[in-house]
Amino acid sequence: MNPCSSVNVYPNPILLSLVGINAVHEAGYTVDRKSGIDEYLFEFFDSPVVLQDENKRQLYKGNVFILYAPGQPQYFRAEGPLKHTWFQISGHGVAECIEHYKIPINRVVSVEHPDFLTPLLEEAQRQLVRKHQYWEDALTEIGRSLFRHLARALYQKNPTELSPFQKDLLATLHRVRAQVYKDLKRRWTVDDMAVLANMSPARFAIAYRSNFGTGPIDDLIDFRLRHAEILLRHLPISIVDAAQHSGFNTASNFHVLFRERTGKSPRDLRKMNGRSMNFITDTENPFEGWEAAQKINLLYIRPVGHWSFDLDEEQVIDDLRKHPAAELQGDVAKCPGRVGGHALHFGGHAHAVFPEAMIDTSQSYTVCAWLLRDQPGRMTAVSISNAHHGAFYLQYITADGGFKFAVTISDRDPLGIYVTSSETTVVGEWYHVTGIHDAARQEIRLYLNGRLQGRTPFKTAWRADGSTYFGGCHLMDTIIDHWFGAMDDVRIYDAVLSEAEIETLYKDRTENKPSESLERDL
Questions:
Q1: pTM score, whole prediction
Q2: pLDDT tens, 93-125?
Q3: Which domains does the chain have, with CATH numbers?
Q4: Engineering a disulfide at 78: which of 82, 193, 252, 458 sits with its beta carbon 3.0 to 4.6 angstroms away?
Q5: Helix (H) / strand (E) containing 9
Q6: 201-212 and 164-182 helices cross at what angle (nearest 10)?
Q7: From CA 371, how far away is CA 215, in angstroms rounded?
Q8: What one-character-per-residue DSSP string does 351-390 give?
Q9: What is the distance between the alpha carbons of residues 369 and 392, in angstroms, rounded to a whole number?
């Protein structure tokens, strides 16, 4: 049996049977059900209404909701023109959500207009009408999302949300940070970084520390040290070469800073299983030295984000720690990997979300990963979205022919343009899947195991400013198309990788199986 197998089932499903969105009635409209109904009934009222709850009957000015339990008497009367949004909901998952999110039942509660209601209920209506494959699962996800957002509206009194100015500033800082990280050999100063941000040095330094928790120079030194550590762990190069590739003036300066900040010597990384590593210098084997340098450039300098899932931390973080840790939802766990020691497995109905868009999706980018699926179906491995839907999806969809790279045409229209693999794949096997958006050529491309599968014109790329998802994708505040299976060695680049580079990523990981990995060989 595949060690990453999972079961496609919700233990506690939820069903939305009837939905009404912004329904309008005349004054005097009355509902009086003395024995209630067999399901839970949620009612939100925008306008003045007389409501009966478990305590008493009284007039409310609006912006109130009530969740009636099955069999509970229901009464409300419109005092003037009435507008309300409602839904009937049932299933074992309802009681679970009510308890977990502490949702009041049979009681009138004041709440500011819950903007999440309309998009979620519209999607529920579409699922009820179309009844596509796994529509019941989609309704369960929507139901859970409704309760979760209702709890936030009730208990998160002062939610922290960035203003448009703060979002622009954070995007600028991330752009500068990424540019600095790409050019580690440059002698960076705060003044140099501030010029890239079009800010004064003093203001740039304050903003940088406020957003990243450290100063720009300290952050650069820490990144150089992590970068050098990765090179020494994974590539057969000398300590001097690792220091130079990471931007240190001298090996002695690198030694001092490394020991000061990590508490160990770089030479400690030169030992594996009680024996010293062999390493190359420019004078020993020029070809191997050039080959190692190419791997350094491709595998460790250029990615905006790289997740091997082999770090010891329990959190899901990128190997160079350039981005926040992921928030895990559902059954997400490590399992045996395709490249190194571990992969990340998703038991369906689960995902990992990073609270930032890793790249500017209006520009060129490459996203690739080793992917294994436990079953056929419709599922998304990697995506980046705004508040409405994804800008791109790296997917597997059985009905469309297999692995797929899809993009959407605008920030408000989820219509997809896509490329699908023409090769047959097998459940339980690993495949290296690469999606590319080439802004210069105005097209998207898909590669499977290093081979081009196809290309499609795409001229309306747009920038998603939301989050990055592993194991699912975002649609109107709901996570759908969950991945059933595992992923390993996920990489996101803010550039177009060449076919040679894509083939190198695939072949390097094919020739170095988990039992023969670089780290074990060194």
A1: 0.52
A2: 999 999 988 999 999 998 876 778 888 888 888
A3: 15-155 (2.60.120.280), 164-301 (1.10.10.60), 305-521 (2.60.120.200)
A4: 82
A5: none
A6: 100
A7: 37
A8: EEEESS-SS-TTS-EEEEEEEEESSSSEEEEEEEE-SSBE
A9: 14
The structure tokens listed for 26 are 């005349």
User: How many whole angstroms separate alpha carbon 344 and alpha carbon 323?
Assistant: 18
Q: Give the whole-angstrom CA distance, residue 274 versus residue 120.
A: 57
The per-residue pLDDT of the chain, averaged, comes to: 82
208 and 173 in contact (C-beta within 8 Å)? yes
Token pair, residue 446, equals: 């898909």
Distance of CA 165 to the CA centre of its chain: 23
Backbone angles phi, psi at 442, to 5 degrees: 55, 60
d(CA 17, CA 15): 6
Spatial CA neighbour of 44 closest among 102, 104, 113, 97: 113
Judged by DSSP in three states, 334 sits in: strand
Burial class (CB in 10 A: 0-12, 13-18, 19+), 415: exposed
